[in-house]
Amino acid sequence: MAMPRYDKLVFEIGAPGRVGYSLPASDVPVEDPRAGIPDSYLRREAPALPEVSEFDVVRHYSRLSQLNYGVDTHFYPLGSCTMKYNPKLNETMARLPGFARLHPLTPPASAQGALGLMHDLAQMLGEIAGMDAVSLQPAAGAQGELAGVLMIRAFHRANGEKRTKVLVPDSAHGTNPASTALAGYQVVQLKSLANGDVDLADLEAHLAPDVAAFMITQPNTLGLFEQRILEITDLCHARGVQVYMDGANLNAILGITRPGDLGFDVCHFNLHKTFTTPHGGGGPGAGPVGVKSHLEPFLPAPVVVRRGEAYALDWKRPKSIGKLQAFWGNFGMLVRAYTYIRTMGPDGLREVSENAVLNANYIMARLAKDYDVAAPGPCMHECVLSARKQKKLGVTAMDIAKRLLDLGFYAPSTYFPLIVEEALMIEPTETESKETLDAFCDAMIQIAREAEQSPAVIHEAPVTTSVRRLDQTRAAREPDLRWAPRR
Q1: What is the DSSP code string of 392-438?
Q2: What pLDDT does residue 392 have?
Q3: Which of 127, 172, 176, 426 is the most exposed place for a label (fewest CB within 10 A)?
């Protein structure tokens, strides 16, 4: 029997769980798939695709995957980014057919389980952060920031105020000024003190009537808890200024303190940083945003609400800043975060932060003799070191990062925060064992000795990776995005 031509096949979805191909009936016209495409866009010859077997393809990509660095295979101390382990239970729950196969346009009456999960997750996040209402809609932490700033703008406009500036510390994440500028505000940078805290005198000097908000990360990007945070929020509120907390470092304070109790009006959550959803390419991400009650009317629409025993999408929100994306949020990420919170419970979440803080301080204590500590005193969930000593010997923070790859570790964040010379920002998270932390510290101490005795070894690194050191500046400025088949 002759096989049917592929261009004559139609895709058929039959009963649930059954997918197949079938030929169209003889009296059903089959449209030429090229119809409507301008002739100039049609190929004149077949694409030059490689002719390889399935086995060769599988082997190729399997080998590539074995070259990857990831939390499942290596210690990944990428400070500020919080590269947490993603429990496999979360993945299992997100792949349940009732969740994974639910179409985003499913009527609310047929999606009660999903809406119920979203409603409960929003309440959980609100309780964890001390916020009165939460939107799960933002698709990333930066979009959560944007949503928060837009709500602050709507709040001031509703009160008849025209405020044009937002204050941001010089140690802030780069997304803070970016989100602020995107919302139409002028960004004003504040100075930090030598110990990494906000300069209160500089803050007070800038609290003019045209200031809409002050954005700050707590703990800050030096891994330090702002000791005078209550003074900061009181100062801002006395001038009618809203206070925004970048929730990137929430992993340090779970169950210990709450942003809402510290005087913050808005806080976003990076679900990948604190609640173990995949990060970056493993996403897409999710960046819920929580607010105090006076900002609740401005939340993005729709909001999941409970009406009696049923859940619904509330669109009737005249003061809302509007919709942020096509549907209701990156639902798979929400399932993962919900699973994590339910698995850990209140006591478990507090233990997460306690262990994260303990691990970071252990690393800082072990490395303090060989590297400069950026700010004195105990740190929170991450520590910031400086390679100033090594730079005097001709070895930079980037050199150290490359050498770590040879020793089996992913590199910590380098050159951030920007206010620290030759910064090395290390965040071990709570899941790493003492054995792993000791192995990492031993590698860092070895590199410090090599910088003194054989710096050439560091300058040549990495030598064990499939790709040697690249010209990163040129790669950023002159990316080669072309693909050409082998001849």
Answers
A1: TTT--HHHHHHHHHHTT----EES-STTSTTEEEE---SS--HHHHH
A2: 97
A3: 127
Window from 52-56, 62-66, 253-257, 315-319 with minimum mean pLDDT: 62-66
CB-CB contact of 119 with 288 (8 Å): no
Residue where a domain terminates, one of 344, 375, 399: 344
Are 445 and 340 in a shared domain? no
Domain count for the chain = 2
Percent of the chain as helix, strand, coil, to the nearest 5: 40, 15, 45
pLDDT at 51: 87
**224 φ/ψ angles, rounded to the nearest 5 degrees:** -115, 145
Coil vs helix vs strand at 3 = coil
Rounded to 5 degrees, φ, ψ at 234 are -65, -45
What DSSP element (H or E) covers 334? helix 331-367
pTM: predicted TM-score of the whole model, two decimal places: 0.85
Cα–Cα distances (Å) from 71 to 278, 286, 431, 432, 441, in that order, read 10, 19, 10, 10, 18
Taking CA atoms, 239 is separated from 25, 201, 301, 346, in Å, by 74, 15, 29, 36
| 126 and 229 in a common domain | yes
